[in-house]
C-alpha cells in the first residue's frame, strides 16, 4: 500500500462516544459509535452517517479509526451505526437492503439532524453494503440528507450486484449468503450489551438468522424483488449530491459511469486501480487522499463552503498500463485522465469485425472448468485474488486475435460484442473476455462480460432458445480504462462456460457463432496525468496486538482418476487483540469449488467459516457450513450454524432447501 500520513492534530478537538444508543420508533435500540468536535454543542456541525451490518466494535474498526475521527476533527459528527440484528444493536435482520433497514437509516438521519450538536445537515457514506444503502436512502429523500459518498456500489440489484450478471447466476450469490450467515452469527460484546444481556441477544439472533441464498435463488428473473432498491428504476428520485468512487480491480466497475450519466443532482465520479477498499489505503497503488477529497464534498454540500467541487471533471479515471499477468499487483503504473463531461465526446467506438458476413461459423463448446484464471468477483484481501494469466482459459475458448498494434491505444469505457449465433440447447450462457496479449503470448484480462442467452432481450421476461435457430445478442463488457502498448495484440475470447464466476447451464451446449463484432471505446492517447490527488492521510490507526497473522491461499487440483477439477481457497483473516477494550477476534473462511469438465451437473460449492471472540475468561465461537449443488430441475442448498460458549455447544441449526431451477 502507498504510505499514509497519520494526522494527529486537527482544527477541532475530537471526543468519542463508543456506544450511543439511538432508539427507533418501534423501540429497537441501535448502537452507534460517534466522534464529534468537543465544542459541537456550542458550534453545531453537520453529521455523516455510515450504517452497516459489519460491526463497528471489531469488523470495520480498522478503516473506521482512519476515517471517522478525521472527519470529526474537521468539524463533523461522524456516526457509525451497527444495523439492527448485528454487532451491538438490538433487533433482527431478515435480508439485505430491507425496507426496515432503509427506514432505520432515515430515522437515524432525522435523529442526528435534531441533535443540539448538529446544524441540521446530514451526509451518508459507505463502501459496498454502505455504498448501496446510501444511494437507496438518498432515493427516499429524507429531508436532512444533502449529500452522499458511495463507493464500490451498484444502481442495479439484479444485474450488477453479486446475484445475477447478464442473467447468469453468480457463484458469489451463494458465497455472499454464506458470508452473511457467518457475519450475523457473531455475538454482541458483553462490555456494550451487558453481562446479563448479551447471551439473550445472541441466542435470539441465532434462532432467527436467515440463510439468504434460497431467498435470492427464488428470484431468478428481474422481478419486483430486485427492482425495489435498484435506483436505476428511477434515477430522478436521487436529489442529494453524489460522489461515486470505485476501482478497476473491484466487481462494481460500472456504477460510476451509470451515476454520472443518469443522475441530475450534482454528481462526480472517480475510478482508480483499486480492489474492494476505501482508496486512502487501497491497493494496487497509487492510493489517493480520499479523506481530503471527501472533505471537499462534505464542506460544499453540508457547510456551504466554496470548495470548487462543481468545477471538477465529471469523470476522473486511472488508465492502467499493461503489466505482466499476476494474481496480485502491489502497484499498477498508469496515469489519471479527466473528462469534463460524461459520456465523453472524446471517446469514439471503433467496430472490429471478428467474424465477417459469410465466414465459416465458429463452434463454441467449452469445457465446464473454463474460467479458473478469472480471479475473485470482488478481491479484498491484498492477496492472490486478481485474474491471472488468461492462457489456460484462452485454450478452452474460441479466440479472435487481432493484428499486432503499431501504436498504443487507450480503451476507456465499456467494450461490447454483438453476435449472431444458434444453440443446440434451449438455454446457454456466453462469456466474452477482452485480453491484452504480450509479444511472448502472456494474456492479461482487460474486461469481461457474460450473458444468459435466454435473457438476450429481457432479464424480466426471458425467451427460450430454439435449437438451431439463429438469434442476435449483445454482450456488454465491464467498464475499463486500459492502455494496450504497441507490439501487443487484442484478443477476444468467447466461451460458454465461466467457472467459478457463474453457475453452469444444466446441459452442455454448443454455440454456432456466425457473426461477431467488437465495439471498442477508444480515447485519444493520454500523455500524462490530467488531474492529481493529494497524498493519502488518515487519523491514528487502530491499536492492536497480532495473535495470528493473516494468510491467503488458492490451489487448483485435478484428480487424474475422476477428472474433477477443484479450486480450494483459504483466507485466514488472522486474530488480533484490541488494545483499548481488550476484545480478541479472529476469523477464517475455507471455500471449495469443484466441477467435472464434461458435466455441468457435477458443479458444487462449499464454505466453512470460523469466528472467534474472547476476553479474559470469556470466549465464544461460531462455525458455519454451507453447500450448493444442482440437478437439472433444482438448486439444492444446505447450511448449518454451530455456536459455542467456551467449548460448550449452546446452539445448532440446520437449513436445507431445494429451489426450482428456472431454466430460462
UniProtKB/TrEMBL annotation:
Signal peptide: none annotated. InterPro entries: AB_hydrolase_fold, CocE/Ser_esterase, Galactose-bd-like_sf, Xaa-Pro-like_dom, Xaa-Pro_dipept_C, Xaa-Pro_dipeptidyl-ppase/CocE. The keyword Oxidoreductase does not apply. Pfam families: Peptidase_S15 (PF02129), PepX_C (PF08530). One of its GO terms (molecular function) is hydrolase activity. Residues 295-542 form the Xaa-Pro dipeptidyl-peptidase C-terminal domain. Keywords: Hydrolase. This is CocE/NonD family hydrolase. The keyword Cell cycle does not apply. Gene3D superfamilies: alpha-amino acid ester hydrolase ( Helical cap domain), alpha/beta hydrolase, Galactose-binding domain-like. It comes from the Bacteria.
Amino acid at each position: 500500500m502507498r504510505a499514509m500520513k497519520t494526522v494527529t492534530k486537527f482544527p477541532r478537538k475530537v471526543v468519542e462516544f463508543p456506544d450511543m444508543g439511538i432508539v427507533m420508533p418501534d423501540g429497537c435500540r441501535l448502537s452507534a459509535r460517534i466522534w464529534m468536535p468537543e465544542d459541537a454543542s456550542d458550534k453545531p456541525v453537520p453529521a455523516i452517517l455510515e450504517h452497516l451490518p459489519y460491526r463497528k466494535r471489531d469488523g470495520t474498526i480498522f478503516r473506521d479509526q482512519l476515517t471517522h475521527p478525521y472527519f470529526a476533527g474537521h468539524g463533523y459528527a461522524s456516526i457509525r451505526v451497527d444495523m439492527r440484528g448485528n454487532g451491538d444493536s438490538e433487533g433482527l435482520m431478515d435480508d439485505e437492503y430491507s425496507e426496515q433497514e432503509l427506514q432505520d437509516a432515515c430515522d437515524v438521519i432525522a435523529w442526528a439532524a435534531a441533535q443540539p450538536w448538529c446544524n441540521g445537515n446530514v451526509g451518508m457514506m459507505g463502501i459496498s453494503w454502505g455504498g448501496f444503502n446510501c444511494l437507496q436512502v438518498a432515493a427516499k429523500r429524507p429531508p436532512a440528507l444533502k449529500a452522499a459518498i458511495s463507493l464500490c456500489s451498484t444502481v442495479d440489484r439484479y444485474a450488477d450486484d453479486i446475484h445475477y450478471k447478464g442473467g447468469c447466476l453468480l457463484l458469489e450469490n451463494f458465497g455472499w449468503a454464506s458470508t452473511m450467515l457467518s457475519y450475523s452469527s457473531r455475538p454482541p460484546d458483553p462490555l456494550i450489551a451487558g453481562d446479563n444481556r448479551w447471551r439473550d441477544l445472541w441466542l435470539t439472533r441465532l434462532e432467527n438468522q436467515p440463510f439468504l441464498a434460497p431467498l435470492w435463488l427464488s428470484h431468478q428473473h428481474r422481478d419486483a424483488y430486485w427492482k425495489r432498491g435498484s435506483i436505476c428504476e428511477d434515477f430522478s428520485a436521487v436529489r442529494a449530491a453524489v460522489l461515486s468512487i470505485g476501482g478497476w480491480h473491484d466487481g462494481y466497475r460500472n456504477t460510476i459511469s451509470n451515476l454520472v450519466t443518469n443522475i441530475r443532482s450534482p454528481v462526480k465520479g472517480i475510478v482508480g486501480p483499486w480492489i474492494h477498499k476505501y482508496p486512502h489505503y487501497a491497493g494496487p497503488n497509487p492510493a489517493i487522499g480520499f479523506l481530503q477529497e471527501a472533505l471537499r464534498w462534505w464542506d460544499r454540500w453540508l457547510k456551504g463552503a466554496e470548495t470548487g467541487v462543481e468545477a471538477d471533471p465529471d469523470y476522473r479515471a486511472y488508465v492502467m498500463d499493461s503489466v505482466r499477468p499476476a494474481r496480485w499487483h502491489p502497484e499498477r503504473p498508469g496515469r489519471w485522465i479527466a473528462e469534463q463531461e460524461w459520456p465523453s465526446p472524446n471517446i469514439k467506438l471503433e467496430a472490429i469485425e471478428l467474424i465477417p458476413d459469410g465466414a465459416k461459423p465458429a463452434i463454441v463448446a467449452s469445457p465446464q472448468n473454463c474460467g479458473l484464471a478469472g480471479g475473485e468477483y470482488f478481491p479484498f484481501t491484498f492477496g492472490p485474488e486478481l485474474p491471472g494469466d488468461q492462457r489456460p482459459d484462452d485454450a478452452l475458448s474460441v479466440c479472435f486475435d487481432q493484428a499486432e498494434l503499431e501504436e498504443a491505444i487507450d480503451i476507456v469505457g465499456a467494450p461490447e460484442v454483438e453476435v449472431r449465433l444458434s444453440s443446440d440447447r434451449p438455454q446457454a450462457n456466453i462469456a466474452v473476455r477482452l485480453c491484452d496479449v504480450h509479444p511472448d503470448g502472456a494474456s492479461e484480462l482487460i474486461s469481461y462480460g457474460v450473458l444468459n442467452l435466454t435473457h438476450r432481450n429481457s432479464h424480466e421476461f426471458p425467451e427460450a432458445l430454439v435449437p438451431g435457430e439463429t438469434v442476435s445478442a449483445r454482450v456488454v463488457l465491464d467498464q475499463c480504462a486500459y492502455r494496450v502498448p504497441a507490439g501487443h495484440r487484442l484478443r477476444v475470447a468467447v466461451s460458454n462456460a465461466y467457472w467459478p464466476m457463474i453457475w453452469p447451464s444444466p446441459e452442455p451446449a454448443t454455440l454456432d457463432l456466425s457473426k461477431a463484432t467488437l465495439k471498442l471505446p477508444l480515447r485519444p492517447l493520454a500523455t500524462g496525468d490530467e488531474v492529481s490527488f493529494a497524498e493519502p492521510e488518515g487519523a491514528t490507526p487502530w491499536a492492536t496486538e497480532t495473535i495470528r497473522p493473516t494468510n491467503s491461499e488458492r490451489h487448483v487440483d485435478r484428480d487424474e482418476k475422476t477428472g474433477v477439477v477443484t479450486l480450494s481457497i483459504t483466507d485466514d483473516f488472522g486474530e488480533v487483540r484490541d488494545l483499548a477494550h481488550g476484545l480478541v477476534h479472529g476469523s477464517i473462511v475455507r471455500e471449495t469449488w469443484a466441477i467435472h469438465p464434461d458435466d455441468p451437473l457435477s458443479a458444487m460449492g462449499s464454505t466453512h467459516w470460523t469466528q472467534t471472540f474472547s476476553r479474559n475468561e470469556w470466549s465464544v465461537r461460531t462455525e458455519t457450513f454451507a453447500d450448493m449443488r444442482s440437478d437439472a430441475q433444482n438448486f439444492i442448498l444446505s447450511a448449518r450454524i454451530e455456536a459455542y460458549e467456551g467449548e460448550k455447544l449452546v446452539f445448532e441449526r440446520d437449513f436445507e432447501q431445494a429451489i426450482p431451477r428456472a431454466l430460462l
